[in-house]
Amino acid sequence: MAGVSVRRNWLSGLGIVIASTIVLGSSDQARVVYFLRDAELPKFLLKNANLSSANLLLLVASPAQAQTLPVPPGDKPNPNIDRFPQPLPTPQPLPPRDSQPIIPTPSPPAPIPEQPPISIPVRQIEVTGSTVLSQDEIATITKPFEGRSVTLKDLRGVADSITQIYLNQGYITSRAVLVDQEITNGVVKILVIEGSLEKIEVQGNRRLNSSYIRRRIKLGAGKPLRASKLEDQLRLLKADPLLTNVEATLKPGTDLGQSILSVRVTEAKAINGFVGVDNYSPPSVGSERFGGVISYRNLTGIGDELSASYYRSTTGGSNSFDFIYRVPVNAMNGTLQLRYAPTDSKITEPSFSRFNITSDSELYEISYRQPLIRTPRDEFALSLGFAVQDGQNFLEGVPTPFSQGPDEQGNSKTRVLKFGQDYIKRDSKGAWAIRSQFSFGLDVLDATINSDPTPDGRFFSWLGQIQRVQLLGRDHLLVAQADVQLTPDSLLPSQQFVIGGGQSLRGYRQNARAGDNGFRLSVENRIALQRNATGQPNLQLAPFIDIGEVWNASGNPNKVSTQTFLASVGLGLIWEPLTHFLIRLDYAYPFVDLSDRGDNAQDEGFYFSVGYGF
């Protein structure tokens, strides 16, 4: 016999408990009826003739159709990573050293003509001017020649031995010399002249200020001048996106031990961009999107960059802008960034488009990232940022909250202080990239405030990411990455951890699940099938596995959907038929068959991306 059960139901599309759900029977033909009582109608509905209780009684559907109204989603393919203030340098394997050194080793001084041997009684050899060698290191060289008679050639040999130690340690412009002297009481003086840069000559730059180049080189131009440190700075300069090539030559300076570094650079083009189309957008606003990014590097000659991006879904349900200005403020690449990102969304999915659900959001952010260690092999940096984010949802043009947390006008406001740490370690076989960020939601500037445990703008969360890029032989590149977010607090939707989508967890639609806490793990093996004329892979197969889960903080009144653990396995194809023209196709088989699965290509596990960089 069919049973009858009655329970309270949160109709998230209206943001208030307004209905009782009566489930008749337990068979596949059971029907769910949403009904309203006028006493429970929100005030804005009572003022709206178009949304009377009689009209809402028409919401009668089978269980598969009885869905809550969707919240307009975020527009980012991977919103978790978008919350980091500044991008991490690309974790690529350490490039091999050039066959020719960046700084050619200076030619040794011309040999001194042989002179007739003269016996010189030596009681002590006094070495001055060295800040590198200890007295014990010097004594091991000088001791055998003290307390006996030696020749001038022997004394020059002592100086050459000291010079050789400097050369072996990379101090290629330092010399120990037997100074002109009158030997008294058997004391011989040897002077160590530790090399230094007299000046840096910069050539080839047209728009980039010479001071930008000089200040970075000077970080490796200490006294005594060490080739390895100087070459590190030149290699970093060579990897700078503002430049395509750096050549350097050391020339003798005006005084002994001084050198002139002549640097010739080739500037990269100023304007760069990308245009593309993909299906990395939430289906509720249109899964296919198109757009691009354009940036102007070295805008004012100091290495600054201005970039703008725009993406629009093909249904017109999502319009997303992102404007960024970034400027380096010191030679260690400490970078100040200003960002403004407005977005407007509209639910265009046929099931819900008639409700005219829209949202607007704006993000203002200022951040500063300062590397404390920066070499071609590793980089460690700290960052500090402050983000102001406002969002508002509308139903039929009326401001409406879609969950517990936003105020009565559907406003959700967060003011977040972000403290981040990131580290990159490169080796010949791959690279590690690690990021960590502590976020503090502050009660300032009219942030959303509610009583506990309702989500609001006051919170603490930690977001972490680790990635390893590993060469497995010539034709295999392993890319493994993991993200995690932990918090004890109930979060507003803009701060939650999201899984699902072509750049998040494949096999499920974009933003399939969201929660206060969560993790995601992805492992992908890129197998080179074909290479271009330069030896770079231009056709790759990429088998992968993705897993992830989300959960809410205890007490959060907004319940997470069921089936919060997602996993999939799949295969990708990466093809670059022309230089900078990239096509990627992915198919993922989901291990978890979601009860709310739709019929979009994303729900079937298909993703594509076609783009051209210029």
Shape assignment: elongated
Q: Level of helix content?
A: under 10%
Q: Which stretches of 5+ consecutive residues score pLDDT under 50? A: 1-67
State the total count of DSSP E strands: 31
The side-by-side strand order for the widest beta sheet comes to 13-14-15-16-17-18-19-21-22-23-24-27-28-29-30-31
From the helix content, strand content and strand pairing, which structural class follows? mainly beta
**Share of residues in strands:** over 45%
Q: In this structure, how is the largest beta sheet organized?
A: 16 strands, antiparallel, barrel
Q: For the CA atoms, what is the radius of gyration? A: 33 Å
On the 0 to 100 scale, the average pLDDT is 86
In DSSP terms (H or I, runs of 4 or more residues), the helix count works out at 7
Give the N-terminus to C-terminus distance in angstroms. Answer: 68 Å
Notes on the protein architecture:
By secondary structure, the chain is mainly beta. It has a domain at 4-61. Helix content is 10%, strand content 46%. The protein contains 7 helices and 31 strands. It is elongated and about 105 Å long.
Features:
16-stranded antiparallel barrel, single chain, mainly beta, disordered N terminus, 614 residues, 7 helices
Write the layout of secondary structure elements.
Blueprint: E1 4-11, E2 16-24, E3 32-35, H1 43-46, H2 53-56, E4 60-61, H3 79-82, E5 120-122, E6 124-128, H4 135-142, E7 148-150, H5 152-168, E8 175-178, E9 187-193, E10 196-203, H6 210-218, H7 227-239, E11 243-252, E12 258-267, E13 271-278, E14 289-297, E15 305-313, E16 318-328, E17 335-346, E18 357-374, E19 378-395, E20 398-399, E21 411-427, E22 430-441, E23 459-471, E24 476-486, E25 497-499, E26 513-515, E27 517-531, E28 537-551, E29 565-578, E30 581-590, E31 606-613
Parallel strand pairs: 6-9, 10-12
Antiparallel strand pairs: 1-2, 2-3, 3-4, 5-7, 8-9, 11-12, 13-14, 13-31, 14-15, 15-16, 16-17, 17-18, 18-19, 19-20, 19-21, 21-22, 22-23, 23-24, 24-27, 25-26, 27-28, 28-29, 29-30, 30-31
Helix pairs in contact: 6-7
